[in-house]
Automatic annotation (TrEMBL), chain A:
Keywords: Membrane, Transmembrane, Transmembrane helix, Transport
Cellular compartments per GO CC: plasma membrane
Protein's gene: ugpA
Name the record gives this protein: sn-glycerol-3-phosphate transport system permease protein UgpA
Subcellular location: Cell membrane
Residues passing through the membrane, by range: 7-31, 63-89, 110-132, 152-178, 198-220, 258-281
One BP annotation, GO: transmembrane transport
Organism: Pseudoprimorskyibacter insulae
From TrEMBL, chain B:
Entry's localization field: Cell membrane
Record's protein name: Trehalose transport system permease protein SugB
GO biological process, one term: transmembrane transport
GO cellular component, one term: plasma membrane
Pfam families hit by this protein: BPD_transp_1 (PF00528)
Keyword annotations from UniProtKB, A to Z: Cell membrane, Membrane, Transmembrane, Transmembrane helix, Transport
Organism: Pseudoprimorskyibacter insulae
Membrane topology type: Multi-pass membrane protein
Protein family per UniProt: Belongs to the binding-protein-dependent transport system permease family.
UniProtKB/TrEMBL annotation, chain C:
Designated name of the protein: Uncharacterized protein
Alphabetical list of InterPro entries matching this protein: Bact_solute-bd_prot1 (IPR050490), SBP (IPR006059)
Signal peptide, first to last residue: 1-23
Protein location: Periplasm
PANTHER family recorded: ABC TRANSPORTER PERIPLASMIC-BINDING PROTEIN YCJN-RELATED, ARABINOSE-BINDING PROTEIN-RELATED
SUPFAM superfamilies, sorted: Periplasmic binding protein-like II
Family designation: Belongs to the bacterial solute-binding protein 1 family.
UniProt keyword terms in alphabetical order: Signal, Transport
Lineage top rank: taxon: Bacteria
Gene Ontology cellular component terms for the protein in this record: periplasmic space
Length: 292, 278, 479
């Protein structure tokens, strides 16, 4: 059909903006990652130190811990969001009075800024005076203290993330379910398939692309989580909620460790891209290319 | 076909809505409590609301200018990202450019970058490179609109791709046969058909931009500060002013709620991602 | 009346009087000196605090009305304030003409030549020398902002001491006094030793429990993921046991560990940390999430009988009834001390607590140094101090103590200003280290692990000393 020139012209503004605000900063970060640079060191200059930073990262217990914490968090949060989101989406497929209102209510958390979400949850969870620990103690005799219990702090962040982002998953899955063709389901019922069989053999394969796409977005955003955690726990107690994003923040903001902080960022970005690329090529790319 | 049990459904949704709304309700409760009451035993039921925080926030000229900045930046960014994302998706969908799938994937990697460390290069670029004479991109609304593209443009491309892919190519070709120009085909044939997807992209990019904190905190100073950065002014040395912060938060929710309400009905039909077409 | 309200009222008063009366009778000087800088806008960045808000809302508009020089003040959170100032000065952008210098960062800034020598600037430009401004007016706190040449690199804008606050209503209650005497065999009075402090904390904790009150024995700034806890230990607890300067010996190759000649993991340091950790059992449950601000809020909410509280909070706790439930019920005392610490402090060989505060400095990268110097002189004058001290309790000039408004306020604050004036010399600012935040962040994760109990005190401090030395070696300070 038309020459690819038009295609490049249409793509050009995107590429130009991403080049100036995405690629150039990235190149700079990669450059810095091969240097030791802390403006408050005895020598405040940028000093080339080869792969030293990369070598150091392998033995950095705090960093490795933060990767572990982040991966655990992303796993529990995203899986829960997917399951809860799927059931809510299925529930929205039925007709019932007030459906539009309930759907609007369910999307409300999405419009709250992460920094605000973190603040509200912090106030709700303040040991002894926050409303949640207060009533958990009053009604069930449970003593919940996110300042001392790693589990409580971590679980709070997972629950907070589920509260905040499940609506996105619900919405995308509603969209996927709405656009499913009805024929295969009717045929399966005629053939006497049970609910479980229908779910695993028809529903799952058909909504898989939407699920993967949603997981993809959530995965990327969950891996970068900083604001909420920063407000809620600051990474504590101990290092229990010191996610990679928080770790990097501490490294480059208060510690002004620009060199090593850049190295961590490059590594984290690299790991994220690899993980997402694997997900992309195995699950999504075949479908996208098939359409050409 | 499916059994309808409206009472059960309503009970279920009331419960879910309670869980969803509680933190938002609590935000409101905090905003109408005087500071002295915040650190006492909590009470679920709101009694004797105190509106002083609202008067204070409403009367603050700085916060009003932050509100305007937030509106301009997020609207500008959402419109820009949605339009550019649409053009990009059209290109990726209709042309056989070399390496386009890799390019498609590469755009999304821009959203994966941990933001903290990118602040320094962005600061340097926006003060020293993207500057003409006395003008520099730092602390300008246009600067923030462009910076926010790094995470919103990939998102727009990612959400719009299935939508644009879903518009049959035959429609374009029929229009070309009728003698329409490429521009006409894109803007008058494909664009209207993508409206639901565009609406969703617009609102979600708008929300992401409206809620962004870290980049705005570092890259604005006086002229382009946004409402979320205004929040950090109330984390003071003599106590965090939770009441004021909550009030500002309530104010940030209102425009978001209006914009969200306007396009709510498009969302269900628009968010198709990779959904299989029947 | 709330301090924020007072600031608003002052701003209103300014609008009425148009600032002319506040020029201290030297209106001509300001008009003439500012003539070359008409149309100039000065920009400053500072941490959001009542004194800063007073500058933004009252002093800056006054100055503009007087001189025609506009002053924009950006107020933001603690983390952001440092980051923004450092990025600007490091990159040489020249965005800011004034930066807030917290006392503990001054050595880092001086080491990098980030700041302008204001003494020299005024000496070189006599036409800028304001009649109402004199370096000799400042309290000794200004000495923290002097360089090696004795010149001033920042104009003090706030100064506080971290003091021992106690509830006079509880300590003065006859029944409580009797119960305390029966329980401990001694009279109830503010503690002078650590054992007494713990005893009082335990007594009030049990008293609160027994009477079903929301009352605990002592505040603890014990956040398990925020450097506030690190600061409370190193700046306010360890010195009262005689461990100074974070246990790092600057004159001995920056040694931190005992093995190398430092004191960070000395037995005394361990004893101090253990004492402080044990205090938590008598502290309100939110202590594990408390930074400096929450400690103030806890005390203001009447949830603690005593505590070590930063001076910037003492003001509103004692006098602001919109935020505090204990107005008029607050007394001040010196922190409890180990044997010999007071003698050392009086001899100048040690200190008993933290003298904090900050100054406004003029970045070397500013493009409007002369105009900025005028503004700094303006806020440093004796004349503007009393109203400022009333609106946002802080004292930086010696003469301010004697102003009738401030004398009246001193009563309200339970004698806090007297203590600042008479005992201020016993307190000290942060050690003169140019690597302040770096070493703090290098050791903080381990410190949090001690707080959560993942590490015991002895192992934890050993590990921290090792980490501090490793970090100092990496930074190039320790050879």
């Amino acid at each position: 059909m038309h020459s690819n020139r038009l295609g490049w012209i249409l793509l050009a503004p995107t590429l130009v903006i991403l080049f100036f605000f995405g690629v150039l900063p990235f190149v700079y970060v990669v450059f810095v990652s091969f240097h030791s640079w802390n403006p408050f060191a005895a020598n405040p200059e940028m000093i080339f130190n080869g792969a030293d930073n990369f070598r150091k990262i392998v033995f950095d217990a705090e960093f490795l811990n933060s990767v572990g914490v982040t991966v655990t968090f992303v796993f529990f949060a995203v899986v829960s969001e997917l399951i809860v989101g799927y059931f809510l989406a299925q529930a929205f497929m039925k007709e019932f009075p007030g459906k539009a209102i309930f759907r609007t209510i369910h999307t409300l958390p999405l419009i709250m800024a992460p920094i605000i979400v973190g603040s509200v949850w912090k106030l709700m969870m303040t040991p002894s005076i926050g409303i949640i620990p207060h009533y958990l103690n009053e009604w069930f005799g449970l003593s919940v203290n996110i300042g001392t219990s790693s589990f409580a702090a971590f679980a709070t962040i997972v629950v907070m993330d589920i509260w905040h982002w499940t609506p996105l998953v619900t919405l995308t899955l509603i969209a996927a379910l709405v656009s499913l063709p009805q024929d295969p389901f009717e045929q399966a019922q005629i053939d006497g398939a049970n609910k479980r069989q229908i779910f695993f053999h028809i529903t799952v394969p058909m909504i898989a692309p939407a699920v993967v796409a949603t997981v993809f977005i959530r995965l990327m955003d969950a891996l970068r989580t900083v604001d909420e955690v920063w407000m809620l726990t600051g990474g504590g107690p101990g290092s229990a909620t010191r996610f990679v994003g928080v770790h990097i923040f501490r490294e480059v903001f208060p510690k002004t460790n620009y060199g090593y902080g850049s190295t961590i960022s490059v590594i984290v970005l690299y790991l994220t891209i690899v993980a997402c690329w694997l997900l992309y090529v195995t699950m999504l790319a075949p479908r996208n290319t098939k359409k050409d | 076909m499916k059994k309808n049990r409206p009472v059960l459904a309503i009970v279920f949704w009331v419960l879910v809505s309670f869980l969803t709304l509680f933190p938002i309700y609590w935000l409101f409760v905090i905003s109408v409590k005087p500071a002295v009451q915040l650190f006492s035993t909590p009470d679920v039921i709101l009694s004797d609301p105190y509106w002083g925080n609202y008067a204070k926030v409403w009367g603050d000229r700085l916060l009003r200018s932050y509100m305007v900045n937030s509106l301009v930046i997020s609207t500008g960014n959402a419109v820009l990202c949605t339009l550019l994302g649409f053009f990009a998706c059209y290109a990726l969908s209709r042309f056989n450019m070399a390496g386009k799938e890799s390019l498609f994937f590469w755009t999304i990697t821009n959203r994966m970058a941990p933001p903290a460390v990118f602040l320094l290069p962005l600061f340097l670029l926006m003060t020293q490179v993207y500057a003409v004479g006395d003008f520099r991109l730092l602390d300008t609304r246009i600067g923030m609109i462009l910076v926010y593209c790094t995470f919103n443009l990939p998102f727009a491309i990612w959400t719009l791709r299935p939508t644009v892919d879903g518009i049959p190519k035959e429609l374009d070709e029929a229009a070309y046969v009728d003698g329409a120009s490429a521009w006409k085909v894109i803007t008058e044939v494909v664009f209207p058909l993508c409206r639901p997807g565009l609406a969703v992209t617009l609102i979600l990019t708008w929300v992401f931009a409206w809620n962004e904190y870290l980049l705005a905190a570092t890259l604005t100073n006086f002229n382009a500060r946004t409402l979320t950065t205004g929040l950090s002014e109330y984390v003071t040395t003599t106590g965090t002013e939770w009441g004021i912060m909550a009030t500002i938060s309530v104010f940030t929710l209102i425009p978001a709620l209006i914009v969200f309400g306007m396009v709510q009905k498009h969302i269900v039909t628009g968010l198709t991602f990779g959904a299989v077409k029947g | 009346m709330s301090f924020a309200h007072k600031i608003a009222v002052s701003a209103l008063a300014l609008a009425v009087s148009a600032g002319a009366a506040l020029a201290g009778g030297h209106e001509d000087f300001w008009k003439k000196a500012a003539e070359p800088y008409q149309g100039v806008t000065l920009r400053g960045v500072t941490e959001s605090s009542p004194p800063s808000l007073y500058i933004r809302e009252v002093l800056a508009p006054q100055f503009e009305a007087l001189t025609g020089i506009r002053v924009d003040i950006e107020t933001t959170s603690w983390d952001q304030m440092f980051d923004k100032a450092i990025k600007d000065m490091e990159a040489g952008t020249g965005i800011y003409d004034m930066v807030y210098i917290e006392q503990d960062i001054i050595y880092s800034y001086l080491a990098r030549n980030f700041l302008t020598d204001t003494t020299q600037l005024l000496a070189d430009n006599p036409q800028l020398q304001a009649p109402g401004y004199d370096e000799a007016n400042f309290t000794t706190f200004a000495d923290y902002f002097r360089g090696d040449n004795g010149h001033l690199y920042g104009i003090p804008m706030e100064a506080f001491i971290k003091i021992y606050l106690y509830r006079t209503d509880l300590f003065g209650d006859a029944d409580i006094q009797a119960a305390f005497k029966a329980a401990t065999g001694r009279d109830l009075a503010p503690a002078t030793t650590h054992a007494e402090y713990t005893e009082i904390a335990k007594f009030f904790y049990e008293y609160g429990q027994a009477n079903d009150m929301q009352l605990w024995g002592a505040t603890v700034q014990g956040h398990t993921g925020h450097p506030a806890s690190w600061y409370e230990y190193f700046e306010s607890v360890a010195p009262t046991f005689g461990v100074y300067n974070w246990g790092i010996d600057a004159n001995n190759n920056y040694a931190a560990s005992v093995a190398n000649g430092g004191a960070m993991n000395s037995d005394t340091a361990k004893e101090a940390l253990q004492w402080w950790l044990d205090l938590r059992q008598y502290a309100p449950p939110e202590s594990n999430q408390s930074t400096w601000t929450e400690v103030g809020t806890t005390f203001g909410a009447g949830r603690a009988a005593q505590g070590l509280v930063y001076g910037e909070n003492a003001g509103w706790i004692a006098a602001d009834d919109t935020k505090s439930l204990v107005v008029g019920k607050v007394g001040v005392a010196l922190p409890p001390l180990a044997d010999g610490v007071m003698a050392a402090a009086e001899a100048g060989d040690g200190y008993i607590g933290y003298y904090d505060g900050g100054a406004f400095g003029l970045p070397s990268t500013s493009k409007q140094k002369e105009a900025a110097a005028l503004f700094l002189e303006y806020i440093g004058q004796n004349d503007v101090q009393p109203d400022w001290a009333v609106a946002a309790p802080r004292v930086t000039n010696t003469a301010t103590y004697d102003d009738p408004k401030v004398v009246a306020m001193n009563e309200e604050l339970g004698g806090y200003y007297d203590m600042l004036r008479d005992k201020g010399y016993l307190f000290a600012g942060a050690p003169a280290y140019p690597f302040h935040a770096q070493v703090r962040e290098a050791t903080a994760p381990t410190f949090y692990k001690i707080l959560t109990g993942d590490l015991n005190v002895s192992e934890g401090l050993d590990q921290m000393a090792a980490e501090a030395e490793a970090s100092l070696t990496e930074l190039g300070y320790r050879k």
